[in-house]
Protein backbone atom coordinates (compact mmCIF):
# COMPACT_ATOMS: atom_id res chain seq x y z
CA UNK A 1 0.00 0.00 0.00
CA UNK A 2 1.32 3.40 -0.94
CA UNK A 3 1.28 6.05 1.82
CA UNK A 4 -0.10 9.43 0.82
CA UNK A 5 1.08 12.60 2.49
CA UNK A 6 -1.52 14.81 4.19
CA UNK A 7 -1.78 17.92 2.00
CA UNK A 8 -2.55 20.05 5.08
CA UNK A 9 0.43 18.89 7.16
CA UNK A 10 3.60 20.95 7.56
CA UNK A 11 6.80 19.53 6.11
CA UNK A 12 8.68 17.50 8.66
CA UNK A 13 11.62 19.26 10.30
CA UNK A 14 14.96 17.65 9.53
CA UNK A 15 16.34 15.45 12.31
CA UNK A 16 18.83 17.04 14.68
CA UNK A 17 22.26 15.60 14.04
CA UNK A 18 25.35 15.48 16.20
CA UNK A 19 23.75 16.43 19.53
CA UNK A 20 25.91 15.54 22.55
CA UNK A 21 24.41 14.08 25.70
CA UNK A 22 22.25 16.58 27.60
CA UNK A 23 23.82 15.33 30.84
CA UNK A 24 27.29 16.07 29.47
CA UNK A 25 26.23 19.56 28.36
CA UNK A 26 24.73 20.25 31.76
CA UNK A 27 27.95 19.16 33.49
CA UNK A 28 30.06 21.22 31.09
CA UNK A 29 27.94 24.36 31.58
CA UNK A 30 28.15 24.10 35.37
CA UNK A 31 31.92 23.50 35.26
CA UNK A 32 32.38 26.46 32.90
CA UNK A 33 30.42 28.71 35.23
CA UNK A 34 32.22 27.67 38.41
CA UNK A 35 35.58 26.89 36.78
CA UNK A 36 35.73 24.07 39.30
CA UNK A 37 34.58 20.45 39.03
CA UNK A 38 33.87 20.17 42.77
CA UNK A 39 31.53 23.17 42.86
CA UNK A 40 29.81 21.99 39.70
CA UNK A 41 29.31 18.57 41.29
CA UNK A 42 27.79 20.13 44.43
CA UNK A 43 25.35 22.09 42.30
CA UNK A 44 24.33 19.05 40.25
CA UNK A 45 24.28 16.74 43.30
CA UNK A 46 26.70 14.25 41.73
CA UNK A 47 30.30 13.31 42.42
CA UNK A 48 33.24 15.38 41.27
CA UNK A 49 34.47 12.39 39.29
CA UNK A 50 31.14 12.16 37.45
CA UNK A 51 31.40 15.78 36.30
CA UNK A 52 35.01 15.33 35.17
CA UNK A 53 34.07 12.15 33.31
CA UNK A 54 31.18 13.86 31.52
CA UNK A 55 33.40 16.75 30.47
CA UNK A 56 36.15 14.41 29.23
CA UNK A 57 33.58 12.43 27.24
CA UNK A 58 32.24 15.64 25.70
CA UNK A 59 35.75 16.76 24.73
CA UNK A 60 36.43 13.37 23.19
CA UNK A 61 33.16 13.44 21.24
CA UNK A 62 33.76 16.96 19.95
CA UNK A 63 37.46 16.47 19.36
CA UNK A 64 38.05 19.84 21.02
CA UNK A 65 39.75 20.74 24.30
CA UNK A 66 37.28 22.78 26.36
CA UNK A 67 39.33 23.41 29.52
CA UNK A 68 42.91 23.81 30.59
CA UNK A 69 43.38 21.88 33.87
CA UNK A 70 45.35 23.93 36.36
CA UNK A 71 46.41 23.47 39.97
CA UNK A 72 43.86 26.00 41.26
CA UNK A 73 40.98 25.05 39.02
CA UNK A 74 39.94 25.24 35.40
CA UNK A 75 40.53 27.79 32.68
CA UNK A 76 38.32 27.60 29.57
CA UNK A 77 40.01 27.46 26.23
CA UNK A 78 38.91 29.97 23.62
CA UNK A 79 36.68 27.34 22.05
CA UNK A 80 35.37 26.25 25.45
CA UNK A 81 34.45 29.80 26.45
CA UNK A 82 32.50 30.42 23.25
CA UNK A 83 30.79 27.02 23.46
CA UNK A 84 29.81 27.54 27.12
CA UNK A 85 28.03 30.79 26.27
CA UNK A 86 25.93 29.18 23.54
CA UNK A 87 25.22 26.05 25.60
CA UNK A 88 24.03 28.20 28.52
CA UNK A 89 21.65 30.10 26.23
CA UNK A 90 20.32 26.85 24.79
CA UNK A 91 19.71 25.34 28.25
CA UNK A 92 17.91 28.51 29.33
CA UNK A 93 15.67 28.26 26.26
CA UNK A 94 14.86 24.64 27.11
CA UNK A 95 14.05 25.61 30.71
CA UNK A 96 11.83 28.51 29.59
CA UNK A 97 10.02 26.33 27.04
CA UNK A 98 9.38 23.69 29.71
CA UNK A 99 7.98 26.22 32.18
CA UNK A 100 5.63 27.64 29.55
CA UNK A 101 4.00 24.21 29.23
CA UNK A 102 2.48 24.89 32.65
CA UNK A 103 0.50 28.09 32.02
CA UNK A 104 -1.91 27.32 34.87
CA UNK A 105 0.82 27.65 37.49
CA UNK A 106 1.25 31.15 38.87
CA UNK A 107 4.37 30.73 40.93
CA UNK A 108 7.38 32.78 41.94
CA UNK A 109 10.60 31.24 43.24
CA UNK A 110 12.45 33.51 45.63
CA UNK A 111 15.99 32.94 46.88
CA UNK A 112 16.77 34.34 50.33
CA UNK A 113 19.41 33.85 53.02
CA UNK A 114 18.35 31.39 55.76
CA UNK A 115 18.25 33.97 58.57
CA UNK A 116 16.13 36.42 56.60
CA UNK A 117 13.86 33.56 55.56
CA UNK A 118 13.35 32.30 59.12
CA UNK A 119 13.29 35.57 61.05
CA UNK A 120 11.56 37.94 58.61
CA UNK A 121 9.95 36.29 55.59
CA UNK A 122 8.34 33.13 56.99
CA UNK A 123 6.26 34.84 59.70
CA UNK A 124 4.76 37.06 56.99
CA UNK A 125 3.84 34.35 54.50
CA UNK A 126 0.31 33.81 55.88
CA UNK A 127 -0.48 37.43 54.96
CA UNK A 128 0.79 36.81 51.44
CA UNK A 129 -1.34 33.67 51.07
CA UNK A 130 -4.39 35.60 52.24
CA UNK A 131 -3.73 38.47 49.84
CA UNK A 132 -2.75 36.34 46.82
CA UNK A 133 -4.44 32.92 47.13
CA UNK A 134 -3.77 32.07 43.48
CA UNK A 135 0.01 32.57 43.66
CA UNK A 136 2.43 29.90 44.83
CA UNK A 137 5.51 31.39 46.50
CA UNK A 138 8.45 29.00 46.55
CA UNK A 139 11.18 29.92 49.03
CA UNK A 140 14.74 28.75 48.41
CA UNK A 141 16.77 29.38 51.58
CA UNK A 142 20.43 29.53 50.58
CA UNK A 143 23.56 31.54 51.28
CA UNK A 144 24.66 31.14 47.66
CA UNK A 145 24.16 33.92 45.15
CA UNK A 146 21.34 32.94 42.81
CA UNK A 147 21.80 32.17 39.13
CA UNK A 148 18.33 33.18 38.06
CA UNK A 149 17.60 31.37 34.79
CA UNK A 150 19.93 28.45 35.43
CA UNK A 151 18.23 27.65 38.77
CA UNK A 152 14.68 28.75 37.93
CA UNK A 153 14.87 31.63 40.45
CA UNK A 154 12.64 34.63 39.71
CA UNK A 155 13.55 36.93 42.59
CA UNK A 156 16.36 37.15 45.12
CA UNK A 157 16.86 39.09 48.34
CA UNK A 158 20.56 39.87 48.54
CA UNK A 159 22.64 41.41 51.28
CA UNK A 160 25.25 43.73 49.86
CA UNK A 161 25.87 46.87 47.87
CA UNK A 162 24.71 47.26 44.27
CA UNK A 163 25.41 46.80 41.48
CA UNK A 164 24.99 43.03 41.64
CA UNK A 165 25.67 42.36 37.99
CA UNK A 166 24.53 43.29 34.49
CA UNK A 167 20.95 42.85 33.36
CA UNK A 168 19.42 43.02 36.86
CA UNK A 169 16.77 45.20 38.48
CA UNK A 170 17.68 46.24 42.04
CA UNK A 171 15.51 47.87 44.71
CA UNK A 172 16.39 48.30 48.37
CA UNK A 173 14.12 46.29 50.64
CA UNK A 174 15.46 46.64 54.19
CA UNK A 175 17.96 49.09 55.66
CA UNK A 176 20.45 47.23 57.81
CA UNK A 177 21.00 48.89 61.19
CA UNK A 178 22.48 46.88 64.05
CA UNK A 179 21.43 46.99 67.70
CA UNK A 180 22.81 45.03 70.66
CA UNK A 181 20.54 42.52 72.36
CA UNK A 182 20.77 39.97 75.16
CA UNK A 183 18.51 37.78 77.25
CA UNK A 184 16.83 39.35 80.32
CA UNK A 185 18.45 36.67 82.48
CA UNK A 186 21.89 37.85 81.35
CA UNK A 187 21.51 41.64 81.27
CA UNK A 188 18.39 42.37 83.34
CA UNK A 189 14.89 43.26 82.20
CA UNK A 190 15.78 46.90 81.46
CA UNK A 191 18.90 46.18 79.45
CA UNK A 192 20.64 49.12 81.09
CA UNK A 193 24.32 48.31 81.56
CA UNK A 194 27.22 50.35 82.82
CA UNK A 195 30.31 50.31 80.55
CA UNK A 196 32.18 48.38 83.22
CA UNK A 197 29.55 45.63 83.43
CA UNK A 198 29.14 45.57 79.67
CA UNK A 199 32.86 44.88 79.25
CA UNK A 200 32.50 41.73 81.38
CA UNK A 201 29.71 40.16 79.33
CA UNK A 202 30.52 37.63 76.59
CA UNK A 203 30.00 38.71 73.01
CA UNK A 204 28.51 36.55 70.28
CA UNK A 205 30.06 37.14 66.87
CA UNK A 206 28.74 36.48 63.39
CA UNK A 207 30.38 36.52 59.97
CA UNK A 208 30.15 40.31 59.65
CA UNK A 209 32.31 41.11 62.71
CA UNK A 210 30.65 44.44 63.56
CA UNK A 211 31.34 44.63 67.30
CA UNK A 212 34.44 46.91 67.02
CA UNK A 213 32.47 49.47 64.97
CA UNK A 214 29.54 49.26 67.41
CA UNK A 215 31.72 49.90 70.46
CA UNK A 216 33.51 52.73 68.67
CA UNK A 217 30.18 54.42 67.91
CA UNK A 218 29.18 53.99 71.56
CA UNK A 219 32.44 55.65 72.63
CA UNK A 220 33.54 52.57 74.54
CA UNK A 221 36.80 50.65 74.41
CA UNK A 222 36.67 47.56 72.22
CA UNK A 223 36.82 44.39 74.35
CA UNK A 224 39.60 41.89 73.68
CA UNK A 225 38.87 39.08 71.22
CA UNK A 226 36.88 36.16 72.55
CA UNK A 227 33.41 34.71 72.70
CA UNK A 228 31.51 32.43 70.38
CA UNK A 229 31.43 32.90 66.60
CA UNK A 230 28.70 31.74 64.21
CA UNK A 231 28.54 31.90 60.43
CA UNK A 232 24.87 32.95 60.42
CA UNK A 233 23.13 35.80 62.21
CA UNK A 234 20.20 33.56 63.08
CA UNK A 235 22.42 31.27 65.14
CA UNK A 236 23.91 34.26 66.96
CA UNK A 237 20.39 35.47 67.83
CA UNK A 238 19.39 32.04 69.11
CA UNK A 239 22.54 31.91 71.25
CA UNK A 240 21.67 35.33 72.71
CA UNK A 241 18.16 34.12 73.56
CA UNK A 242 19.77 31.16 75.33
CA UNK A 243 21.76 33.59 77.50
CA UNK A 244 25.16 32.84 76.01
CA UNK A 245 26.10 36.48 75.41
CA UNK A 246 25.24 39.69 73.59
CA UNK A 247 24.53 39.68 69.86
CA UNK A 248 24.25 42.34 67.18
CA UNK A 249 21.21 42.09 64.94
CA UNK A 250 18.92 44.17 62.77
CA UNK A 251 15.71 45.25 64.53
CA UNK A 252 13.58 43.48 61.93
CA UNK A 253 15.23 40.19 62.94
CA UNK A 254 14.72 40.53 66.70
CA UNK A 255 11.54 42.65 67.06
CA UNK A 256 9.32 39.59 67.80
CA UNK A 257 11.81 38.31 70.40
CA UNK A 258 11.97 41.72 72.08
CA UNK A 259 8.17 42.00 72.08
CA UNK A 260 7.88 38.51 73.62
CA UNK A 261 10.46 39.29 76.31
CA UNK A 262 13.00 36.77 75.06
CA UNK A 263 15.50 39.56 74.34
CA UNK A 264 16.08 43.10 75.56
CA UNK A 265 17.95 45.88 73.83
CA UNK A 266 21.31 46.83 75.31
CA UNK A 267 22.63 50.40 74.93
CA UNK A 268 19.36 51.59 73.32
CA UNK A 269 20.95 54.90 72.41
CA UNK A 270 23.36 53.17 69.97
CA UNK A 271 22.37 51.88 66.52
CA UNK A 272 25.10 51.08 64.01
CA UNK A 273 24.25 51.96 60.41
CA UNK A 274 26.24 49.52 58.31
CA UNK A 275 25.59 50.98 54.85
CA UNK A 276 25.10 47.43 53.52
CA UNK A 277 21.43 46.62 53.08
CA UNK A 278 19.06 43.94 51.82
CA UNK A 279 17.90 44.38 48.23
CA UNK A 280 15.35 42.84 45.91
CA UNK A 281 17.13 41.65 42.77
CA UNK A 282 15.55 40.16 39.65
CA UNK A 283 16.58 39.77 36.00
CA UNK A 284 15.46 42.29 33.41
CA UNK A 285 14.71 39.36 31.13
CA UNK A 286 12.13 37.42 33.12
CA UNK A 287 11.41 33.78 32.39
CA UNK A 288 8.44 32.86 30.24
CA UNK A 289 4.98 31.99 31.47
CA UNK A 290 2.60 33.74 33.83
CA UNK A 291 4.99 34.95 36.54
CA UNK A 292 3.26 37.38 38.96
CA UNK A 293 6.54 39.07 39.85
CA UNK A 294 5.02 42.55 40.26
CA UNK A 295 2.56 41.25 42.85
CA UNK A 296 5.31 39.62 44.91
CA UNK A 297 7.74 42.54 44.79
CA UNK A 298 4.98 45.02 45.70
CA UNK A 299 3.96 42.86 48.66
CA UNK A 300 7.55 42.50 49.90
CA UNK A 301 8.12 46.27 49.75
CA UNK A 302 4.85 46.82 51.59
CA UNK A 303 5.89 44.40 54.32
CA UNK A 304 9.30 46.08 54.63
CA UNK A 305 7.59 49.45 55.09
CA UNK A 306 5.47 48.21 58.03
UniProtKB/TrEMBL annotation:
**Pfam families documented for this protein:** HTH_1 (PF00126), LysR_substrate (PF03466)
Q: What positions does the domain HTH lysR-type occupy? A: 20-77
Can you supply a Gene Ontology BP term from the record? DNA-templated transcription
Top-level lineage group: Bacteria
Write the record's keywords in alphabetical order, separated by commas. Answer: DNA-binding, Transcription, Transcription regulation
GO MF entries? DNA-binding transcription factor activity; sequence-specific DNA binding
Q: Which InterPro entries match?
A: LysR-type_TF_proteobact-type (IPR058163), LysR_HTH_N (IPR000847), LysR_subst-bd (IPR005119), WH-like_DNA-bd_sf (IPR036388), WH_DNA-bd_sf (IPR036390)
Similarity-based family: Belongs to the LysR transcriptional regulatory family.
Report the protein name in the record: LysR family glycine cleavage system transcriptional activator
Amino acid sequence: MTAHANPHSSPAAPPLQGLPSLKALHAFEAAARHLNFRLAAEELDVTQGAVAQQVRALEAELGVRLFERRARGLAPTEAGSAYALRVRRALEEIADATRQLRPGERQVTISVAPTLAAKWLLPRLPRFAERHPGVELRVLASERVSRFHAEGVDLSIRYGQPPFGPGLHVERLLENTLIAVGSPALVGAAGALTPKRLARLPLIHDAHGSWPAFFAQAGLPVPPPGGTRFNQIGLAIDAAIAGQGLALASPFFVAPDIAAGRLVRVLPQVALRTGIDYHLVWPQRARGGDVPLDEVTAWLLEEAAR
